[in-house]
Design goal:
single chain; mainly alpha; Serine Threonine Protein Phosphatase 5, Tetratricopeptide repeat; 32 helices
């Protein structure tokens, strides 16, 4: 029992076996093991001070023997006492002595086959883990030893997924980085987060290692990666000023440019365009130094770099920074520059086949109105005609609403006294073409008129019908309730603009007796007394064709076989009482203008 007692001594809290191993008493250790060689005895833990006077807790007799270099005693403990070589303070003995740089201990354990670094048979940690640990700890002698024990083919192919090079680059261990690269570890392999050793070294500001990688790889891809990292430090919402990210970006660009010039690897820069204020990427140190304290110009440099590198990869993160930059420009009142940048961004969206709406431009034009800045008619129409682009032909609710917002802006522009007749004609022509296209939201089948009456702007609706009376179906129904525009405006809780809009729609030819999916006329869904009274007054003079359609539906006359199903006449009857039958109507069914002859 005394053998298992841990006593407090000057050396720490130790057992008799630990004392024997600590002081190198080989015969004494043999005698103790002959009395008791149980694992509980051999692996008993204590607390011992190391050579630096630091108290190490949870050590075993084997740890003491290895720490002091008593290898004969270590062999006795392992061979006769079956000491656990992975039983160390807070971690395995192997890990501990790798971290502390004890190559002699590592060699003793491996060369005597007490531990192996080639397989996972002894422990759940592999050779690559130990190589990583040595590289992370900057013990080049142990790294060299492990490399000599590894399979050269496996090392060069990266089998085992060693992160030794990544770890050495992160910690700034220059000698280890050189050693590992020369041994064949690829500096282009990415870790689980997609980072290369070059990127890791740059992020951690180990510029000597960055220099080494650039020279070692000596290719365009490495410079591109470094420059892309530099551009990522720019926050496009910066105001003029300098901070750590600013310095980091500049330092990386400077380092990349210097190496490009030394290694004769020039950039392939794009020609200047208005979106980037006709600026080009810096191609000399003098050019870069001239923009060192110009935050706006550095932001442009970053955007230029990102487009050069991300566009070929079809990386859509490029678009986010451009949108943010545009917002910053608009908030600073630089509307023209914002417009040019976002117009360029839209073209990039098309190149990347990325879904995009024109709401950014609507927001920009509204900001200009608020600021009292005149909008260029040419620029405005340039955006308006984009609504007819192939990329905008999927009529989502957002896209149809955006087209309507542009019509609303057009209405405001037409009110300006400075509007020329040529500009006025051009705007009206665009609105006519938009109405002729008859955009309908894919999900709810709402027309421009449905969305327009929701806003309850009388002048807006007048403009829309003035330009599109030939194509706008006043009695088109949505897919929500089967409502017409009259149903929609009748549901309004306020009379503001509702009364004149209802009168205008009725005078334009809207039918007040159309029934929705629930067999309700606009008067049945009216929310206010004034609207209800107006609709009631208009019902006194129903048109003959409406009365005939109502009679057919009320008498349940089977008219489908009398004339072709997909006709405007069928649709007209459906709107007057048969909408609940859910007829499948073609696009031509909305053309009911031919029934005016029954008025």
């Amino acid at each position: 029992m005394a053998l298992q007692v841990v006593e407090s001594r000057e050396e720490g809290n130790v057992s008799i076996l630990i004392l024997g191993a600590l002081y190198g008493y080989e015969d004494f250790v043999r005698v103790l093991l002959s009395w008791n060689s149980s694992p509980q005895h051999v692996n008993l833990r204590g607390n011992v001070k190391n050579d630096h006077g630091n108290l190490i807790q949870g050590v075993t007799a084997l740890w003491c023997a290895l720490e002091k270099g008593h290898y004969s005693i270590a062999s006795i403990l392992i061979n006769e006492g079956k000491a656990d070589i992975f039983c160390g303070p807070r971690e395995s003995l192997f890990d501990y002595f790798i971290k502390t740089g004890r190559l002699d201990v590592i060699q003793f354990l491996v060369d005597n086959d007490y531990a192996t670094v080639k397989t996972q048979s002894v422990t759940n940690k592999s050779y690559y883990y130990y190589l990583d640990l040595a590289a992370s700890s900057d013990h080049t002698n142990i790294v060299i030893y492990f490399l000599s024990k590894g399979d050269e083919r496996d090392i060069r192919k990266g089998i085992g997924v060693s992160n030794a090079l990544h770890l050495a680059a992160k910690k700034g261990h220059y000698d280890c980085v050189r050693l590992l690269c020369n041994a064949g570890l690829s500096p282009k392999r990415r870790d689980v987060y997609g980072n290369t050793p070059l990127r890791i070294a740059a992020v951690n500001k180990h510029f000597n290692i960055v220099d080494f990688f650039l020279e070692y790889n000596n290719d365009e891809a490495s410079f591109n990666e470094l420059e892309l990292l530099a551009s990522s430090y720019i926050n496009v919402n910066w105001q003029l000023g300098i901070n750590d990210q600013f310095h980091q970006m500049y330092n990386l660009l400077e380092q990349s440019l210097i190496k490009r010039l030394l290694l004769n690897i020039p950039k392939a820069v794009a020609p200047p365009i208005a979106a980037y204020e006709f600026q080009r990427e810096c191609q000399s140190i003098d050019e870069l130094e001239s923009i060192q304290h110009d935050a706006d110009r550095l932001i442009l440099e970053a955007l230029l770099i990102r487009e050069r590198l991300l566009l070929p990869e079809k990386d859509k993160t490029l678009l986010v920074s451009l949108r943010q930059r545009g917002i910053t420009l608009a908030e600073r009142g630089e509307f023209d520059q914002c417009f040019q940048l976002w117009l360029h961004t839209f073209r990039l969206h098309q190149q990347l086949e990325s879904d995009i709406d024109l709401q950014n431009f609507v927001w920009l034009f509204c900001r200009m109105f608020t600021a009292g800045i005149s909008i260029s008619i040419v620029s405005f129409l340039q955006i308006c005609y984009i609504t007819f682009a192939s990329s905008q032909q999927k009529f989502t609710g957002e896209r149809v609403a955006t087209s309507l917002y542009l019509v609303a802006i057009a209405a405001k522009l037409l009110e300006q006294d400075t509007m020329t007749s040529v500009d006025r004609h051009a705007i009206l022509q665009w609105i006519r073409r938009l109405c002729r296209q008859q955009p309908i939201t894919e999900d709810t089948a709402q027309t421009l008129l449905h969305l327009c009456v929701t806003d309850r702007t009388y002048q807006f609706i007048r403009l829309l019908l003035h330009c599109g009376h030939r194509w706008i179906d006043l009695d088109a129904v949505d897919r929500i309730y089967g409502d017409t525009a009259l149903h929609r405006i009748a549901r309004s809780w306020t009379d503001v603009n509702a009364i004149p809009i209802i009168e205008f729609l009725i005078n334009a030819g809207a039918h007040i007796d159309c029934l929705n999916n629930y067999k309700q006329m606009p008067i049945n869904v009216a929310k206010t007394t004034a609207v209800r009274s107006l609709l009631q007054s208009k019902q006194r003079l129903l048109r003959l064709k409406c009365l005939c359609a109502r009679l057919i539906t009320n008498q349940q006359i089977n008219y489908d076989s009398v004339w072709p199903v997909h006709t405007a006449l069928n649709r007209f009857i459906v709107l007057h009482g048969d909408l609940s039958r859910k007829h499948e109507l073609s696009d031509e069914d909305s053309l009911i203008d031919g029934f005016d002859l029954f008025d």
